[in-house]
Design goal:
It is a single chain. The protein has a four-stranded parallel beta sheet with strand order 2-1-3-4, with helices on both faces. The two termini are 21 Å apart. The protein contains four helices and four strands. α1 links the parallel β1 (2-7) and β2. It is of the alpha/beta class.
């Protein structure tokens, strides 16, 4: 399954829409699951969308992650490196669409 991850620091729908539009061409005809975080900074401790994505990667459900840019996953370099390590360990393809 393909994961599309979207995060905004505001509730602006246009920002969400722009990120989704960047990502969708990379999905193809694959089954997809959307992970979204609204009004969330990349350094917030409470990251429900990212936490769920990580759980789904660890379970083997996700084979590809598409995100507009790496800063949508995290602005924290240690957290971002942990995510990179996880996708490498699980052989998950990671695409930054922006």
């Amino acid at each position: 399954m393909v994961a599309v991850f979207v995060r905004t620091e505001t509730n602006e729908f246009i920002e969400v829409q722009q990120q989704i539009e960047k990502c969708l061409p990379f999905v193809g005809k694959s089954e997809q699951k959307m992970y979204m975080e609204f009004s969330t900074t990349g350094t917030d401790a409470e990251r429900l969308g990212l936490s769920q994505l990580v759980e789904d990667i660890q379970s083997g459900m996700i084979t590809k992650v598409i995100c507009a840019s790496s800063d949508r996953i995290s602005n924290n370099m240690a957290e971002l490196n942990q995510f990179f390590q996880l996708v490498r360990e699980k052989s998950v393809e990671l695409i930054f669409a922006g």
